[in-house]
Amino acid sequence: MNKVFLIGNLTRDPELTETSGGTKICRFGIAINRYNRGEQKTDFYNCVAWTNLAETVANYAKKGTKVAVSGSIELRDYEDSQGIKRTGIDIIVRDFELLSPRSNGNSDDYEGSAPAQRGGSKPQLQPFDDDSDIPF
Predict the structure, then answer these.
(1) Which label site among 31, 88, 98, 123 has the fewest CB atoms less than 10 Å from its CB?
(2) pLDDT of 66-119, one tens digit each?
(3) Are 73 and 3 contacting, i.e. CB atoms less than 8 angstroms apart?
(4) pTM of the shown model
(5) What's the CA gap between 102 and 112, in Å, rounded?
(6) What does residue 94 show for φ and ψ, rounded to 5 degrees?
(7) 46, 30 in Cβ contact below 8 A?
(8) CA separation (Å) from 25 to 17, 37, 49, 51, 86?
(9) What is the DSSP string of 36-78?
């Protein structure tokens, strides 16, 4: 099983491009803090989102946005500019959630907001008190 869940901040603005076949691809980086024996270290991951998810990331996330991503780890081999063979690690994003709060009170200006989280009012919860039918 190859599954990864990460929460971190974008290290740069997402870069939306298109393959020669017309498929959207978005590349972005995230930084994640971890602690080792009381010392804080930061790990950096390259992430890749495809198709509709790529457009969503590019439209609503920006450098510094706190995000949660889930997906899989993919290794790729390449040659650097000096001809040395290297291995790169990418996170192939399958699910993406924006975690940054609103930048101000305007619901249309949600910092890092996806369309499903924007606009409209939230439903109001009504108190429910029906203790009489509880079987225990």
Answers:
(1) 123
(2) 999 999 999 999 999 999 999 999 999 999 999 987 665 444 444 444 444 444
(3) no
(4) 0.71
(5) 8
(6) -105, -30
(7) no
(8) 5, 38, 6, 6, 23
(9) ETTEEEEEEEEEEEEHHHHHHHHHH--TT-EEEEEEEEEEEEE
